[in-house]
Structures are given as structure tokens and as C-alpha cells.
């Protein structure tokens, strides 16, 4: 495709995606003197940022954070990138508090267990922030996050800053392809006002289109487990990954997702997370155990950061069977456990996906999502398991609960609840991701790198699109990352001189 384009819109910096990373990028590019246009695929901004639990990780000292991150990144990111991220964690509280002046929200240190932080050197330097005290704000009408509005308050700080600067966000405007001239990104194609239009980016394009939570092809290709269900924003289909790939980008961390196990029922379109999120609380009882397709326990049901790693044990393929014997796996609990509290925590940005889970789980038993059985024999038989095996599993479990002794899978004693009072309950659970981390590789300036490590001129990636996180997740780290990466990319893109159209004309990568 050759020839000069009829540019429908022009800005110095064009940002793809109006989630948290896109908005921080936009604010920073604008403050550095650029005109900015944000394109958003969905009808409302927010992405999955708006659904976040609202924990934002920060650090007290750079060296501590460098040490911790070096231990958790699996050798997959450069020392320079780790240092840049660590510096960003230290600067983050002041920066976020500065942004919060826009609406008077308070950024406070979060009271949470330290269990979601792995015991590596430097762990003590890390802590979490959250956004509180936003008067008269009871959430955005397009987001459902139950009683927890912390993620929405966090997003409101960003959106109010964008509105204050009068930065344009075009909703219902998905970007589809980059426009390259002489190896430089000079614009993109997007569906705007119902038609495919060329958009000029004088200085650069910042891809902030989130992850590939809802791209089944990419998930099948890059994850060992299958299926892996998602909660969140249906707009996150990895578009920025495909756009960057076509421009020659290297991909990284595609296998790594932030995920646990959760629920998916045939008669409801979206999946549901299990109720405990964030850092584990070793003193909080949780009603269930998880068993495989023969009725045996195989995992610690409550990892230190359950939402980070608890999907991993389910993804193991057993070649001797041969099958995924833990997909689905099953939650088992009893009548006393049922009363402890709801087992799921639904949230969504999709109006048809809203569901309020009952506190006592009775409505879901009525719906047939949770199956009730008068005896363990009946439960085992209904699932095709040996009654003896399930009895052994439950007896072993009850023995560990009573003794308080060591569990072979390391589940903390304070979380254990015995299973001995009928009726008994079973419900299938699947690997379930909160968000993906993979995407185009970037350097410490958030410049997208090609397959040979060279920056693709004028192309940046931020947020969870090609996230920094490569092995173990840092709880609260994705919100930190969208701030750190957005600050850098916005600033870097705004520093560039305007690209000039060449005499031979612009062409789309094809
Ligand atoms: C339930 C839940 C709880 C979480 N809790 C926390 C937490 O407490 N702390 C934490 O640090 N992290 C948390 N996370 C993760 C964190 O929220 C995300 O990783 C982070 O917000 C991602 O921000 P982002 O801007 O990169 O992506 P998003 O916020 O998803 O934004 C991407 C945007 O790009 C848009 N888009 C996609 N394709 C296109 C296209 N072609 N053209 C234009 N726009 C496009 C999308 O519609 C979306 O609006 C949580 C995630 C979930 C789902």
C-alpha cells in the first residue's frame, strides 16, 4: 500500500488504549509539551485498571527493591530495567499524591499482610499504597467491582487529570495497524466514526492496549494449561501485540500470567475469581480443599500470593493418563464451610456479565453451580471417583486440620477448615487469569525492541502490554508499572522531534 494518506486526525503523540497506562502516558506526554490523542476500543475508558483491587506497590529504597526484583524476575530482564523500575517504585508515592490533588483523594499506606511478598533479600523495602477518601464517588456505572472501589478510585485520579488537561479520548475507536515510513512509526490505522481512518502521530505511538486476556488463540499458543478463563475487560484481546509484531517487535513473557483458579459455568458468559485475593492471610480460615480428577489433593490451595501462582499446579499435563487431570479440579467443602462466606468474587466491565454472588452461597447451590451431596460417597460416585480415595483424602485433611501439623503442600494451619459435616459440596475450578504479562519487549525507555534488540523508532509499549514481570509477580506491581512505564514513555515520546513525511510517501506495513 503506497501513497500519501488523508490523515483524519493528527497529534504529536497517539496513545492506544485508555486504561491506566494509556492515561499516565497521555498526562506525561501532554505535560512535556505534546498534543495527545487517546484512542480507546471500548465505549468507556478504564480497561482492567478500573477493576483492580487497588493495591499499588512502592519501595522505601532503591537497592532493596533492586535486590528483591532481581530474585523474582527469573533472569529474564536486564539489570538496567530492574534498576529503572526500582527507582520508579521509590518515586511513585510522591508522584501519585501529586496527581491525587486533582480531586482530593488520599493515597495511604495499605494495611495488609506481608505474605504476598516472597522472602527474598530486599523484601522489607516494599510496601503497598491504596487510594481512599474520595467523597461522593460511588463508582463508574460501567464497572462492577462489588464493594471494593479502590481500583476505581485509583483510575478516577488518572481520568480526572486527563479531563483537567482537556486531552481527547476517542472511545469506540479501536486501532488496528501501525503505519511505518522508512522504518519509523508515523501513525496508525483505526476504526473511527465507523470507518477505517489514518491517524498521524508526529512524534510517536504509545501502545497501551493491555493484555490478551480475551484472545483465545494467543492463550492456547503460549500457555501450557488450557483452557485458561479470564475476568476483566473483553476489549483486551492483545491487539497491541499483533500491531507490534507486524512492525517487527520481539515478544517476551508471553507464558506469564497473573492467575489463580476460579469458576466458569456453561450458562453464564464470564468467569468468576475465588474470593480470597491479594496477599494471603494465614489466619483467615478458607472452607475448601482442591482435588484432581481422581479425588486427590495436589496443591496448597492458598499460595502466598494466590492470584499470582495458584493457577500453575492446575496446568500440569499427566502423560501417564494421558490428560490434564487437574483441569478442571474441584473445590470440596462442607456445610459449616459453606457458611464461612462466599466462595467467589465476581467483577466485570461488561453490563451483561454482572453477577452478585450470595454471601452464604445458597443462591449458587440453587442454580446448580455448586453441587450438594448428602454424603462423601454420593459426591465421589457422582464424579466417577473411588469412594475410598475421596475418604482417604478427606480423612488425611481432617487429621492435619486437627493436629495443626505440617501439610505436605504447606498450607498454613490458620487457613484450614475441616470437612466433616454434611451435606458436602463440590464445584469445578479452572485456571483463571486476572491479567497477562506478555507482549512486545521494551527497554528502560519503554521503546519497543525488534527481534535483534534494536528499538523500533517512535514506538513505545506500556502497562501490562509487554509487562516487566517475568517470573514471579509483585502484588500491586501492575498498577505501579502502569505509572512507572507511562511516565517514562510519555516523556520520551514527547522529547522526539516530529517525523517528516518522505518524498516517496508513507506506506502501511504490509
Ligand atoms: C480483578 C483484577 C484485580 C487486579 N488488582 C490489581 C491490584 O490490586 N494491583 C495491581 O497492581 N494490579 C492489579 N490488577 C492488574 C492491573 O489492574 C492491570 O495489569 C493494569 O491495570 C493494566 O493496565 P493497562 O493500562 O496496561 O491495561 P488496561 O487497563 O486493560 O487498559 C488497556 C485499554 O486498551 C484498550 N484497548 C485494547 N485494544 C485496543 C485497541 N485495538 N485500540 C484501542 N484501545 C484498545 C482496552 O479496551 C483497555 O481500555 C488487577 C487486575 C484485575 C483484572
Automatic annotation (TrEMBL):
One BP term from GO: steroid metabolic process
Requisite cofactors: FAD
Keywords noted in UniProt: FAD, Flavoprotein, Oxidoreductase
Name of the protein: FAD-dependent oxidoreductase
Stretches assigned to the FAD-dependent oxidoreductase 2 FAD-binding domain: 12-478
A single GO molecular function term of this UniProt record: oxidoreductase activity
A matching Pfam family: FAD_binding_2
UniProt cross-references to SUPFAM superfamilies, sorted A to Z: FAD/NAD(P)-binding domain, Succinate dehydrogenase/fumarate reductase flavoprotein, catalytic domain
Alphabetical list of PANTHER family matching this protein: 3-OXOSTEROID 1-DEHYDROGENASE (PTHR43400:SF10), FUMARATE REDUCTASE (PTHR43400)
Record bears the keyword Oxidoreductase: yes
InterPro entries (UniProt xref): FAD-dep_OxRdtase_2_FAD-bd, FAD-oxidoreductase_2, FAD/NAD-bd_sf, Succ_DH/fumarate_Rdtase_cat_sf
Amino acid at each position: 500500500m503506497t501513497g500519501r494518506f488523508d490523515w483524519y486526525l493528527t497529534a504529536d503523540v497517539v496513545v492506544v488504549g485508555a486504561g491506566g497506562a494509556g492515561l499516565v502516558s497521555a498526562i506525561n506526554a501532554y505535560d512535556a509539551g505534546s498534543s495527545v490523542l487517546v484512542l480507546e476500543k471500548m465505549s468507556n475508558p478504564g480497561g482492567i485498571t478500573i477493576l483492580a483491587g487497588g493495591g499499588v506497590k512502592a519501595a522505601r529504597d532503591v537497592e532493596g527493591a533492586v535486590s528483591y526484583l532481581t530474585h523474582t524476575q527469573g533472569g529474564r530482564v536486564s539489570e538496567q530495567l530492574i534498576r529503572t523500575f526500582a527507582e520508579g517504585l521509590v518515586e511513585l508515592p510522591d508522584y501519585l499524591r501529586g496527581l491525587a490533588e486533582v480531586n482530593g483523594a488520599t493515597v495511604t499506606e495499605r494495611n495488609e499482610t506481608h505474605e504476598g511478598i516472597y522472602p527474598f533479600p530486599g523484601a522489607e523495602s516494599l510496601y503497598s499504597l491504596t487510594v481512599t477518601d474520595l467523597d461522593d464517588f460511588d463508582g463508574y456505572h460501567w464497572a462492577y467491582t462489588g464493594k471494593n472501589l479502590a481500583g476505581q478510585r485509583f483510575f478516577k485520579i488518572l481520568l480526572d487529570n486527563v479531563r483537567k488537561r482537556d486531552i481527547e479520548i476517542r472511545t469506540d475507536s479501536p486501532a488496528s495497524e501501525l503505519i511505518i515510513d522508512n522504518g519509523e512509526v508515523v501513525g496508525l490505522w483505526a476504526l473511527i466514526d465507523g470507518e477505517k481512518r489514518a491517524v498521524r502521530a508526529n512524534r510517536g505511538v504509545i501502545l497501551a492496549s493491555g493484555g490478551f486476556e480475551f484472545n483465545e488463540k494467543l492463550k492456547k499458543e503460549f500457555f501450557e494449561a488450557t483452557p485458561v478463563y479470564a475476568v476483566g475487560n473483553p476489549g483486551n484481546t492483545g491487539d497491541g501485540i499483533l500491531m507490534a509484531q507486524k512492525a517487527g517487535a520481539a515478544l517476551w513473557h508471553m507464558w506469564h500470567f497473573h492467575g489463580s483458579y476460579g469458576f466458569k459455568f456453561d450458562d453464564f458468559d464470564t468467569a468468576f475469581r475465588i474470593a480470597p485475593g491479594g496477599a494471603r492471610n494465614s489466619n483467615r480460615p478458607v472452607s475448601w480443599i482442591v482435588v484432581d480428577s481422581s479425588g486427590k489433593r495436589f496443591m496448597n490451595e492458598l499460595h502466598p500470593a494466590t492470584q499470582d501462582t495458584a493457577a500453575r499446579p492446575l496446568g500440569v499435563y499427566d502423560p501417564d493418563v494421558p490428560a490434564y487431570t487437574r483441569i478442571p479440579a474441584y473445590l470440596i467443602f462442607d456445610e459449616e464451610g459453606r457458611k464461612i462466606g462466599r466462595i467467589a468474587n465476581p467483577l466485570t466491565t461488561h453490563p451483561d456479565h454482572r453477577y452478585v454472588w450470595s454471601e452464604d452461597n445458597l443462591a449458587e447451590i440453587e442454580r446448580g453451580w455448586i453441587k450438594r451431596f448428602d454424603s462423601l460417597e454420593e459426591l465421589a460416585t457422582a464424579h466417577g471417583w473411588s469412594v475410598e480415595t475421596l475418604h482417604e483424602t478427606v480423612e488425611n485433611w481432617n487429621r492435619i486440620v486437627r493436629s495443626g501439623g505440617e501439610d505436605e503442600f504447606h498450607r498454613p494451619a490458620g487457613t484450614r477448615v475441616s470437612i466433616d459435616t454434611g451435606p458436602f459440596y463440590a464445584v469445578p475450578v479452572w485456571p483463571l487469569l486476572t491479567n497477562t504479562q506478555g507482549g512486545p519487549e521494551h527497554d528502560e525507555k519503554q521503546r519497543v525492541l525488534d527481534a535483534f534488540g534494536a528499538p523500533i523508532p517512535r514506538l513505545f509499549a506500556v502497562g501490562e502490554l509487554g509487562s516487566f514481570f517475568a517470573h514471579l509477580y509483585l502484588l500491586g506491581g501492575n498498577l505501579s508499572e502502569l505509572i512507572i512505564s507511562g511516565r517514562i514513555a510519555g516523556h520520551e515520546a514527547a522529547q522526539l522531534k516530529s517525523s517528516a513525511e518522505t518524498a516517496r510517501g508513507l506506506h502501511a506495513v504490509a
